[in-house]
Amino acid sequence: MAQTQKKFIIVGNWKLNPATGEEAKTLFGAIFKKAQNLARVLVIILPPAPFINILSGKKSDSVLLGAQDVSVETSGSFTGLISASQVASVGAQYALIGHSERRKMGDTDSIVSQKVLQAFTAGMKVIVCIGEKERDEHAHYLRAIREQLVSIFNAISDKKYMKNLVIAYEPIWAIGASYDRAPKPSDVHEMVLYIKKVAIEVLGKEFGLKIKILYGGSVNAENAGTIIREGAVNGLLVGRQSLDAKEFLKIIDHAEHV
Ligand code: PGA
């Protein structure tokens, strides 16, 4: 089945792990073996950039690779940066942009937008993270979500790229937290509706209704199924549990059987 027809997307964000290329191969191999023939789920693994090339030999419509970030620069005298076209050239088909850990290191909405455009221009699909630091009873956090979304949507002037955009809603207070701190599926659903509402307002119905939305933040095998079903998301962005092949495969399995 072509990847565009897949119903759910499960992303594994490995962050600054594992320590060596050998370990990356073992972890990826274990996931790939079980996930290479999925009918309904697209798995996207985001290894540290040096490992993308090592892992890209294994090919399947169900398991793709992506980068955890790309630079705002295309080429030139920028020591230490890695461009979108460079990671694309070694097998990254997706780019994660605007993760809260990158935003904490200085990525503003404007930088996030520039990186999104770099990735699109390099032919990649993009997963942009948005999310509030904390919730308040007056729902001011919705304003922060709206601002992040509007900034991204407005930056994409060429609407042909809209089909390559995925939004990942990751409340910062739930990332890396204890698993019982993940929001209730009904709260996730409410946010999915809000994101769609803003998308329709800014982009119109044609693009707004089609936007794909993932949830991320303390997802594990216990809460994955309910969040997908009751949260009405198109998939999940998984951090810690993507480093444990067995647990990650259980999460994938929930999505495959929703
Ligand atoms: P977590 O991380 O699943 O470990 O909470 C999620 C993320 O940072 O994307």
- Given as residue ranges, the uncertain stretches (5+ residues, pLDDT < 50) are none
| Ligand types | 2-phosphoglycolic acid
**Rg, Å, rounded:** 17 Å
Which class of secondary structure composition applies to the elements? alpha/beta
Which descriptor suits the 3D outline? Answer: globular
Give the strand order of the largest sheet, numbering strands 1, 2, ... along the chain: 1-2-3-4-5-6-7-8
The assembly state of the depicted protein chains is: single chain
Provide the succession of SSEs.
Answer: EHEHEHEHHEHEHHEHEH
Amino- and carboxy-terminal Cα gap:
17 Å
Number of strands: 8
Structure at a glance:
The chain is of the alpha/beta class.
Structure, explained:
The chain is 40% helix and 17% strand. It is α/β, with parallel strands linked by helices. The site of 2-phosphoglycolic acid has 12 residues, from strand 8.
